């Protein structure tokens, strides 16, 4: 983009403002994605100037264990928490995703208690959800613990980006229901994040797979299956890749799209179950040795040690045939050492491996496809690395398994691409994603029927299985004339296994009560008014969360021109200005009407109409020129005017139809798992902030203590070096030694419990004490290099001056003009001479001075001399670069002569052109009928030509810059 600024004085101010805007804008650009799994947490980031990458934790690793451990008020995360888990298993929390958004009586909660019996789990008295009893009076909910983990991810990202990070895309399992998704949003809120979108894990993986293969896709659908076995669950998803046409900003564009068309899952099939089987096997083997009367299963610490060792052995057996499980001091100071073979592990988990093909069959059934059309089966997740898992899966799909994506990081990298796309600071190549509903949602309500004492139960399906989202839908009630209510709940779940239906929990989502219905209906009653029903607008957003947007009455009113007063017209105009944009865009967003009593054909008719509408939208616009469209519009206008004239002649009045919308009051009651209230969220936020502040002060104290100890140790060592002893007096050395000794004694006595401010103050005092000595040593060490640099500049300047004088003298003898004047050369000569004399004098004085005294010849003074001399030479060099010799008198005369001839030729060409125009005009007048309109020629408008500053030889007062 090019800008022309007419006032040169404004340019520095404008450029400074632009730079400030760019800096402030870029400081808030970084966005991240967080793949918060049951066992591991991965964070990916995109920031200005940095491509998409995985964020490293403090151990410089690419993934962090999703574990939190408490010891008193101290918190540890990741690897440190795992280390502490063997000693404090009850205060170490992991595998939290199985508990979030669930009632305490959920089967998954019972399974968690069986797997980890040492946790003290209680029921939230308000919500009925899970709470961990931590200490006396201190309980933690899964949302709070997940919020702490997400805040840790925020810290990693901010250290990596060097700026605040507030926006993210959060990855969740695709089988999460409404309550679980709401709970994850609240956990992110507690961490201080703005969630751009909740993204299903298999959708993120599919996006990562597609963005690197976008050139392989075309208008024909390609089907890929992703098999993801993680720590606690397994998912098989079928994705369709296809290039589709979309209409954006008035243009039809083609973009690749990944659509989820089939999903199958098993929430308890994963690497954790295999690890637990091995843990229990090792525990039983230890008990069988009868070396102690105590039972390993009743000792939480021993179980935690065995669990950690079982995970290590399981990973090693994926690549080896056998390995030894070893635990020192497992129980009562007795060690464990048992050889475990891969065959033994597979025998222990035989029933687990039999469930591997279950998600595959379910995904195929839901999608309506067979394995014949699947082009690839791609492995995802750490659990899929086991040889037995791959063997059983290959038997089920009957094709080779693909391992062409990063099984650990694919989801995080796909989600961060989506985060960059959703943020306002980045522009990426579009790659569309369409997710699908796993749990169908329906609306149920009652309706009175004549002749029946019991109201009729009506069901209306809102979102069926595998319906794409985001999407909006409208439900119409046209038989209710008084206040009523309806329920929102999960629909039939026949496509899901029975045990997984129990894991969902309550199937009821919410009850919506409508009030003031009769008043609104009576308000719009009249001979010319017709009710179109009460319409409830639902939306399922990009995060898969269902919401009720609004409920309104739609009335169609007919009126004549005479009936419509000026005030009603004005009111209609104002109402249009304040129309709900969601309503106005219902057709664009794909809201599908669902009627209480559909016409003949019912919902099938609605579906048919929706398909016809989609076909019409997909059809490209007919190729019409603008002139044709304007002609058609003019013809239509004339027809309307003719009809109006005819109707006026006949005395008929024009009928106008208006659609009126009036909002109806609603009240929603949450059913099933209730989200945390505002008060509970604020209390949890304060609790987490207190822990964060404590961690910050603890880290600050540790850093200040380490810095002080390091500085004392370093100062004591430097005093033994020859350079420091030569640059300091004996009194100064003794004073520094005494200061270091006092601080050391204080650290091991009263200072052991001091706070960060005390350590920082001690460090500042010691730095003030040592600063003069350190500066003198630095001056003495760096002075020789600085003097050498000054001599180099002096030699170069002298050589330049000598060459410049020789060329100048030669030009003057030939009576030719030259770029350098005698005054400029004398000025440079004077500068060189003064600098050389200063150097000789200061070297002599510095040599006579003691090293313990403040130096007279400082590095800064030498640097100033170098800069002054360099500035004089650069001035002359730049002047020589832009200098051009003046033209001789003969050349000036020739230029003037050429200019005169050029103007003469231009004038003649204009005259000939004018004559040609006159001839054409005469011919036109002769050919034009006398009764036709007289054509008047427009005079030529001459504009002043603006010189182009980019061309050499042309001058302009208008500075030009391209941003």
TrEMBL record:
GO terms for biological process: endoplasmic reticulum unfolded protein response. GO terms for cellular component: endoplasmic reticulum chaperone complex; endoplasmic reticulum lumen. Keywords: ATP-binding, Chaperone, Endoplasmic reticulum, Nucleotide-binding, Signal. It comes from the Eukaryota. It is found in: Endoplasmic reticulum lumen. Belongs to the heat shock protein 70 family. This is Hypoxia up-regulated protein 1. The gene is LOC113217930.
């Amino acid at each position: 983009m090019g800008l022309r600024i007419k006032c040169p004085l404004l340019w520095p101010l404008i450029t400074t403002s632009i730079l400030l805007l760019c800096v402030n804008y870029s400081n808030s650009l970084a966005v991240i994605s967080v793949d918060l799994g049951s066992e591991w947490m991965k964070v990916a980031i995109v920031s200005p100037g940095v491509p998409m990458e995985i964020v490293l934790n403090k151990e410089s690793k690419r993934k962090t264990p999703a574990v939190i451990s408490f010891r008193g008020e101290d918190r540890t995360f990741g690897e440190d928490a795992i280390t502490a888990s063997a000693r404090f298993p009850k205060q170490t929390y992991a595998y939290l995703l199985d508990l979030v958004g669930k009632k305490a009586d959920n089967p998954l909660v019972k399974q968690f208690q069986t797997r980890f019996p040492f946790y003290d789990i209680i029921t939230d008295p308000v919500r009925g959800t899970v709470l961990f009893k931590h200490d006396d009076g201190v309980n933690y909910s899964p949302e709070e613990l997940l919020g702490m983990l997400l805040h840790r991810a925020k810290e990693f990202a901010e250290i990596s980006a060097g700026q605040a990070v507030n926006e993210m895309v959060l990855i969740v399992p695709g089988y999460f229901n409404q309550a679980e998704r709401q709970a994850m949003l609240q956990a992110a809120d507690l961490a201080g994040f703005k969630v751009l979108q909740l993204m299903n894990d298999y959708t993120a993986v599919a996006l990562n797979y597609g963005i690197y293969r976008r050139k392989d896709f075309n208008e024909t659908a390609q089907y890929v299956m992703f098999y993801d076995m993680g720590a606690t669950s397994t998912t098989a998803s079928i994705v369709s890749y296809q290039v589709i046409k979309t209409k954006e900003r008035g243009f039809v564009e083609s973009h690749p799209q990944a659509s989820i068309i089939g999903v199958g899952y098993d929430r308890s099939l994963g690497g954790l179950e295999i690890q637990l089987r091995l843990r229990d096997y090792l525990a039983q083997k230890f008990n069988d040795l009868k070396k102690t009367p105590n039972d390993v299963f009743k000792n939480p610490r021993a179980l935690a040690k065995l669990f950690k060792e079982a995970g290590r052995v399981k990973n090693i057996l994926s690549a080896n045939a056998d390995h030894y499980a070893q635990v020192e001091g497992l129980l009562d100071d007795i060690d464990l050492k048992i050889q475990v073979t891969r065959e033994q592990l597979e025998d222990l988990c035989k029933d687990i491996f039999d469930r591997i093909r279950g998600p595959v069959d379910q995904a195929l059934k839901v999608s309506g496809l067979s394995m014949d059309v699947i082009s690839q089966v791609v492995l995802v997740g750490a659990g899929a690395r086991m040889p037995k898992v791959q063997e059983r899966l290959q038997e089920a799909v009957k094709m080779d398994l693909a391992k062409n994506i990063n099984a650990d990081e694919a989801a995080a990298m796909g989600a961060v691409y989506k985060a960059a796309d959703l943020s306002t600071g980045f522009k990426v190549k579009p790659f569309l994603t369409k997710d699908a509903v796993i749990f169908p949602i329906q609306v149920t309500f009652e309706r009175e029927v004549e002749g029946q004492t019991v109201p009729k139960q009506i069901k209306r399906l809102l979102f069926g299985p595998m319906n794409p989202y985001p999407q909006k839908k409208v439900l119409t009630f046209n038989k209710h004339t008084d206040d009523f209510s309806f329920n929102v709940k999960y629909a039939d779940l026949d496509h899901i296994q029975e045990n997984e239906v129990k894991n969902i929990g309550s199937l009821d989502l919410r009850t919506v009560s409508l009030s003031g219905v009769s008043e609104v209906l009576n308000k719009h009653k009249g001979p010319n008014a017709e009710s179109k029903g009460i319409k409830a607008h639902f939306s399922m957003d990009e995060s898969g969360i269902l919401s009720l947007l609004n409920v309104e009455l739609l009335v169609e009113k007919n009126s004549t021109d005479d009936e419509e007063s000026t005030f009603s017209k004005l009111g209609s105009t104002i109402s249009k200005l304040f129309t709900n944009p969601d309503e106005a865009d219902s057709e664009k967003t794909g809201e599908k009407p669902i009627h209480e009593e559909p016409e003949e054909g019912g919902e099938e008719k609605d579906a048919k109409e929706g398909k016809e509408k989609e076909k019409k939208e997909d059809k490209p616009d007919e190729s019409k020129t603008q002139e044709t469209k304007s002609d058609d519009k003019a013809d239509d206008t004339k027809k309307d005017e003719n009809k109006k004239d005819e109707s006026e002649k006949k005395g008929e009045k024009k009928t106008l139809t208006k659609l009126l919308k009036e909002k109806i009051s609603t009240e929603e009651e949450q059913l099933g798992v209730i989200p945390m209230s505002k008060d509970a969220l604020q209390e949890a936020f304060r609790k987490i902030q207190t822990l964060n502040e404590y961690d910050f002060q603890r880290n600050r104290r540790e850093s200040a203590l380490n810095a002080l100890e390091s500085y004392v140790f370093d100062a004591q060592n430097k005093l033994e070096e020859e350079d420091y002893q030569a640059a300091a007096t004996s009194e100064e050395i003794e004073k520094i030694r005494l200061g270091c000794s006092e601080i050391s004694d204080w650290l091991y006595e009263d200072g052991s419990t001091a706070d960060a401010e005390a350590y920082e103050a001690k460090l500042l005092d010691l730095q003030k004490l040592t600063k003069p000595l350190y500066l003198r040593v630095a001056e003495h060490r760096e002075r020789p290099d600085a003097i050498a640099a000054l001599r180099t500049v002096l030699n170069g300047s002298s050589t330049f001056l000598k060459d410049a004088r020789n060329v100048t003298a030669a030009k003057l003898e030939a009576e030719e003009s030259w770029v350098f004047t005698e005054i400029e050369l004398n000025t440079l000569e004077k500068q060189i001479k003064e600098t050389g004399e200063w150097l000789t004098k200061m070297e002599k004085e510095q040599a006579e001075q003691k090293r313990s005294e403040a130096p007279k010849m400082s590095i800064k003074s030498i640097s100033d001399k170098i800069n002054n001399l360099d500035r004089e030479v650069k001035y002359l060099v730049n002047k020589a670069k832009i200098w051009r010799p003046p033209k001789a008198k003969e050349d000036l005369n020739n230029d003037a002569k050429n200019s005169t001839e050029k103007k003469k030729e231009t004038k003649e060409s204009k005259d000939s052109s004018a004559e040609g125009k006159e001839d054409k005009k005469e011919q036109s007048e002769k050919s034009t009928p006398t009764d036709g309109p007289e054509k008047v020629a427009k005079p030529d408008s001459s504009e002043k030509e603006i010189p182009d500053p980019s061309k050499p030889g042309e001058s302009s007062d208008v500075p030009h810059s391209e941003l």
